[in-house]
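Local shape tokens:
==================
===
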Amino acid sequence: MIGIEDLLGVALKIESSGYQFYTELAKRSKGENKKLFSSLAEQERDHMKIFEKLISASKEKSEILNEEAVGYLKVYAETSIFPEIEKSVPENMREALEIALDVEKDSVIFYEELLKYAPETSTIQKIIEEEKRHFKDILKMIESLN
């Protein structure tokens, strides 16, 4: 049986992997790129803390969810998000940015689906908006490489 804390745990793992990915990119970068990647890493760490609090709160009033209805969300993250973000960070900046772009897009999709089941929709909605900004910032970086 899947509870909301299971889905929030997936979200926590997404953010943790994103933090590691952006931290590595920040180490390899200079100037404005370094600042942006450091900022993205910090935001992912903030999201981790939010999901940790949501998991703790959800355990107090754990609700079992319909496994068929939400099982695909876990599979989606395991097949679309984690294989990308958990790879080693490519040396090629364009490749790294394209991975980051895909992960941000897929994270938004995951979180928008999570909203249907989560107790704290306003908090998750704020995270979605931040992830969309990450997407835009990364897209600008890719365009600047042209």
